[in-house]
């Protein structure tokens, strides 16, 4: 963990800016509020680091504590502006993603056919990256069927979803918002359209903003055209 923090933050020499560290809410000129949590670290509680790209500053011990509480995949995300450093990966359980095309059109996309994605995930045992390692998790409602227009933008979204699938970002193990069940496979902040022909539920078509919205959600997970 310490090597990851030192890779993406450069130490600020001299006295830091008169602002708060948004992780521990202490002044950057005061020691980190996480001094106790990182007693085995070689980082000093008063050391301040600046992220190399977005230039936001934090106590380096605070970043170490934040990174250590995540799934430690070698990436860091700026808590201020959400810029991602490295390649973010998730905790999606093993499964299979299948893609096929259908001749019929989606409402709002009359000029093309439809891409159908089918996600398969089975119930299993949670790994060390999940909320309750060693305990079972359930996988309700699989296989899950999702739909995109088979046009240029839809195909681009599909390729980015393939990247997100490989990086284990589309699903995670958590608590279902709909049923309240814990230790179950749930969607992970990348919205999918699970109905073809009406949008009463918000999960169907027509929805003129959907492709742009999902591109923004993918980018927030570090999945952009640069990955293709």
TrEMBL record:
<feature type="domain" description="RING-type">
    <location>
        <begin position="21"/>
        <end position="82"/>
    </location>
</feature>
<dbReference type="Pfam" id="PF00097">
    <property type="entry name" value="zf-C3HC4"/>
</dbReference>
<dbReference type="Pfam" id="PF18102">
    <property type="entry name" value="DTC"/>
</dbReference>
<dbReference type="InterPro" id="IPR013083">
    <property type="entry name" value="Znf_RING/FYVE/PHD"/>
</dbReference>
<dbReference type="InterPro" id="IPR039399">
    <property type="entry name" value="Deltex_C_sf"/>
</dbReference>
<dbReference type="InterPro" id="IPR018957">
    <property type="entry name" value="Znf_C3HC4_RING-type"/>
</dbReference>
<dbReference type="InterPro" id="IPR001841">
    <property type="entry name" value="Znf_RING"/>
</dbReference>
<keyword id="KW-0479">Metal-binding</keyword>
<comment type="pathway">
    <text>Protein modification; protein ubiquitination.</text>
</comment>
<dbReference type="GO" id="GO:0007219">
    <property type="term" value="P:Notch signaling pathway"/>
</dbReference>
<dbReference type="GO" id="GO:0008270">
    <property type="term" value="F:zinc ion binding"/>
</dbReference>
<dbReference type="InterPro" id="IPR039396">
    <property type="entry name" value="Deltex_C"/>
</dbReference>
<comment type="similarity">
    <text>Belongs to the Deltex family.</text>
</comment>
<keyword id="KW-0963">Cytoplasm</keyword>
<keyword id="KW-0862">Zinc</keyword>
<dbReference type="GO" id="GO:0016567">
    <property type="term" value="P:protein ubiquitination"/>
</dbReference>
<keyword id="KW-0677">Repeat</keyword>
<protein>
    <recommendedName>
        <fullName>E3 ubiquitin-protein ligase</fullName>
        <ecNumber>2.3.2.27</ecNumber>
    </recommendedName>
</protein>
<keyword id="KW-0863">Zinc-finger</keyword>
<dbReference type="GO" id="GO:0061630">
    <property type="term" value="F:ubiquitin protein ligase activity"/>
</dbReference>
<keyword id="KW-0808">Transferase</keyword>
<dbReference type="GO" id="GO:0005737">
    <property type="term" value="C:cytoplasm"/>
</dbReference>
<keyword id="KW-0914">Notch signaling pathway</keyword>
<dbReference type="InterPro" id="IPR039398">
    <property type="entry name" value="Deltex_fam"/>
</dbReference>
